Amino acid sequence: MNTDKLRCKKVAVSRTRPRSLFFLSVSICVYLWIILFSSCTTKPSDLRTLVPAETLVYLETNDLAAALQPIVDSKPFSSVVTKKPDFSALKGVQVAVAVTGFETSEVAVTDEQSVGKVQPRFVAVADTHAWNYQAVAFAEKKLGSFVTEIYDSEPKLEKLDAKGGKYFTWTSQDGRKAFALVIDSLIYFGNDESAIDKALSVRGGQADSIAKTGKLPQHVPGNLASGYVSTDGVAQIAALAGLHFASQASDEEEVQSAVAGILPQLIRGTVTDVSWSTSQTSEGIEDKWSVRMPADVADVFAETMSPADDFDTGLLDYVPENATSVTAYNFKNPQVAWRSVVLTSQKKVDPLIGRVLGELSGLLFEPYGIRDSEEFLSSIGPGIVTARRDEQDEKSVIITTLKEKGGYPGGFDTGRLTPAIGLSPNGDQFYGTNPKDDEPFSFGVLTNGKLLIGNSLYNLTLPDRPKHSATDRLSRSLKANRSPLNTFGLDNDAGLRLISLLAREGHGDTQVVSTYLTETRFTKTGMERRTVSDLGFIGWMMAELAAE
pTM of the prediction? Predict the structure, then answer.
């Protein structure tokens, strides 16, 4: 699939948050096995030996019940539902999902607008450890109900003896198809017949399994589920990400085409493959991501994005009370860290595009009235905090410290503040103006050596109120782990969606707030990210499914 060459039209986007490409795969796992039959005791299968080596995205769990239980045991879920769902029937059920490809298409909305669609080609393999007749009955009844729900109409079912077992084909009224094959206690299910055939070739010894590639991370005791994105998978996802973000970047076709061409080059040039695992801890559900990078990129980031020895946690006292996402950047030298990102990006794209990236990089600071990013970053301390009200809100704030006089050539006083960030001082408050219409477009406050800059007055309140819930969590994380990137966030929607999906009950006007804390660090092999949350990555994907 050469998605780089796909022409970007003006795209109508029905939602603003990007959907994970793991999303459909995990939702299949959950819906397929949410109501299962009693199992018999057999030796666990090595799921990695059942899917093809050319798999782009791979997910597995050796105990579906154990993977789902922490979600419903979490406080945001259990404190609201009347009765938690019972996953005992899923105990010991093994599930693997292999995405073998992606198909893209465009559906016209108007003469000038279209909606881009991405269809993963996948096969889900489950070892139910049950009798064959039970697996056959499940495939016909439960999978049939699942397909009917997905197609929103009663599909035509064809059942026959084929491919060494019972073979099912469901055909919707618009021609879409789903397939299932039951062999012994195994069930193969997918939306692409060739994906099932590839898995059968592995079973018959005619093709290698993903286990033989040696790329998958080793099983770790205590992990509830794990996943892997191959190098080819990264390349295809990069192309899809380019199209997705291009549709959101601008309504101009030229801008969309530029984004669709640049972003895939950046991702392919800086990411080799990705591994993921999830486990339950005393703090919550822990998701770990390991992003392997080319040696030249990893070496640069490990050096330039090293954390400072100490972080001024007083910056967190100025976080707006209504912020839902707070990120603390703790770099030894913010200017060097930013410069390394820009220079590395320039090296990973065509030279002409690289020059354009260099010129445009400073635009990320323009919403705050910062005209010269290099000058600004060289004039502040190592700690930076950013906060915003929600993912779609453009009104955010930067909180940092100014270097003391003498610490920077000429000091950093009001005189240097004006040319550095293009702001006109007005006592200890200042505002930026748009050169075109001379209207304020950013605001700031200087107080107690702290510099607060925002593109709205709402978020520049001083700390004469209760501390934000992010303060203590981020402070402890920064002191204990010294990660250069730390993010604390609140989610007001995911818990409600999961209650509707798993508990099948309403929640009325009840507020369900879940939290997450993400720590990111850079090593000689790439980027390591650890997130501890109430609902976990699997819970987040299931919530996205409920939002569809």
Answer: 0.82
